[in-house]
Structures are given as C-alpha cells and as structure tokens.
Amino acid sequence: MRQQITSWYPILFLSLCCTVTATQAQPAPNSKQHINDQTTISHETPLSKTPLDERLISEQQTQWNKFVITPHKPNYVLPIAYDSKRNEQIESDDNLEIKFQFSLRVPLVQGLLGENSFISLGYTQVSYWQAYNSDASAAFRETNFEPELMLTFFNNTRIMNLTNRLITVGVVHQSNGQSSLTSRSWNRIYVNFILEKQNLYLSIKPWYRFPEDKKQNPLDSAGDDNPNIEKYLGYGELSGIYKFRKQTYGFMLRNNLRTSDSKGAIQFDWTFPLHGRLNGYIQYFNGYGESLIDYNRYTNRLAVGIMFTNWL
User: Fold this and answer.
1) Could you state, in order of their start, the residue ranges of all structural domains in the chain?
2) Residue 3: pLDDT over 70
3) Which end of the chain is more exposed for a tag (fewer CB within 10 A), N or C?
C-alpha cells in the first residue's frame, strides 16, 4: 500500500538527507591499517597513488571504527528526475519525481582466505518518490531493496594494458517489498572484475540468476515474480568511471545478447564539485530495468541532484 505523504515532506526530507548523509566521520587516532601497501597500492611511491588506492586506504583506516558507516555504491538524491515515458505508460504517475539511493557496506571477516581477502555485507536501497504528484497523495512509487554478501580479493594482475585490482564474488537478493501482482524479486551470484588504468576504471560483472519455480497462479506468493527478467536485464553489466581532476564521468551498459529481440540499458553519469564534499550529479538512463517494477517497461530519464559519496 502506498504511503501517504504531506505536501511539505519533500522539503523536510531533502534537508535531513543533506544534514545526515553529508556528515563525514573522521578516522580513529589509533586505527590500524589492515592491508599492507603492497596489497592496496599499485605504484611504488605515495605520490603516485591512484583514486582507487585512496579509497581503499581511507576505508581501511576507518572500517573497524564503530562510529563510521562505510559507503558501498554511490549515495545521492535527485530531486529533479524526469522520465519522458512515465505518464504514457501509467496515467496516474507524473513524469517528474524524486529518485534517491542509500548504500552502505559493513566488514565482517578479513584474511579468512588469505591476507588479501575480506568478506563484507552490503545493502543498497533505491526509491522513486512521486513527491510532486498531489493527485496520488505524493506516494512512494517504488523502492528496491538489495542486500548482498561479498568475498573480495585484492589483486594486481596485468591484463594487456590494464591492472585487475579487485575480484569480488557476491550473492545478492533484490526485491521491491510488494505483494501479489506488483511483487518483484530475484536472486543472483556474480563475479565482479575491477580493472584500472591510471584514472580509468572498468567493472566487468557477469551474473547467474538462481532459477525459481513457475507460479501456478499469478496471485500465488510462492514462485517466480518475473520469469523473463533476463530478457530485459541480461546476464551482466559493463560499467566504467573516468576521474578527471575533481570530476567523474561514468557509464553503465547492459544487453540481453539476443540478435532477434535485443534489449538492454545505458546510463551516463557526471559528477562535479559543488561545496565541501558535496558534488553535483547529472544522471541519464535509457532502456529497461532501472527499477524492478519497471524491468519490462522502457524508461528515458534525465535527473539532476546532489551526490554525497561517489565510487571514487
């Protein structure tokens, strides 16, 4: 059931998000670096540290601090998120809404499978809020919940002109918390290869979906909520980031690799400094699977807002 939201709540939400999420915890004075320089640093001198080196060292210095929440994926709020196809598909929805993402990671065990390995738990939540749609009580249209368990290995293997810095094997569940005909969920195992060349980073992330039984009745709670989701989201994704000074340029590509009925998605990201640690963020998405409820609906969205924590 959609939650009723009063007309002043969007302003309160954005104020709280800017105040709480933008707060940066400082490392503990006596915190230990649990990964040596050979593991985390791909170059010989501190002056040649890459953006990934800086993130890894910063995380190692604070990850065991009980007052620190480590970001996982980017955290952002996009108060202007315009989908030109939204109202054409569902008349009760506005094309303009608020999109925001909250993502964190918690370390669990380090060195279980060698000194260059660690296990962590991640959680990501993405919400789509029809905050400007007073006719529909300014309801939350969709929220996706994504917990995952990850085993990561630090690596420095050379592949052509790239360096494979990280390999992560993960198990992930994603669902939208709804029931009956609007329920969406799937479970996957993936391998993510992070490749680096100076300020360019590539992520090659194939996945396998765990099969589910077919529903005997669409109203059944048990069974596959979205049996053809691979047709739209494919079997993996390729993404990348290029860091130029204080700006970052990113992309994401997905495709089902079918010649007769090709479907997928593309996303472009641009972040730039605003004030302090706040960054402006422009996101463009075109294709299928931006959210679970819309996995088989075409989306064409341009969004503008603020990013609190980035990949790098």
Assistant:
1) 9-213+228-309
2) no
3) N
The pLDDT tens digits of the residues spanning 62-83 come to: 888 989 999 999 999 999 999 9
Residues 95-111 as b or e (16 or more Cβ within 10 Å = b) = bbbbbbbbbbbebeebe
**311 contacts 241 by C-beta, under 8 angstroms:** yes
How many angstroms separate the most distant Cα atoms in the chain? 62
Cα–Cα distance measured from residue 307 to residue 281, given in angstroms and rounded to the nearest whole number: 6
DSSP state of 278: E
Check residue 64 and give its pLDDT: 87
Tell me the C-alpha distance between 37 and 27, whole Å.
Answer: 18
**DSSP code of 199?**
T
The helix (H) or strand (E) run that includes residue 230 is helix 230-233
For residues 67 and 4, what is the distance between their CA atoms, to the nearest angstrom?
A: 33
Tell me which fold the domain 9-213+228-309 belongs to: Outer membrane phospholipase (ompla); Chain C (2.40.230)
Q: From 122, 111, 168, select the one nearest 145 (Cα to Cα).
A: 122
Catalytic residue numbers, as ranges: 173, 175
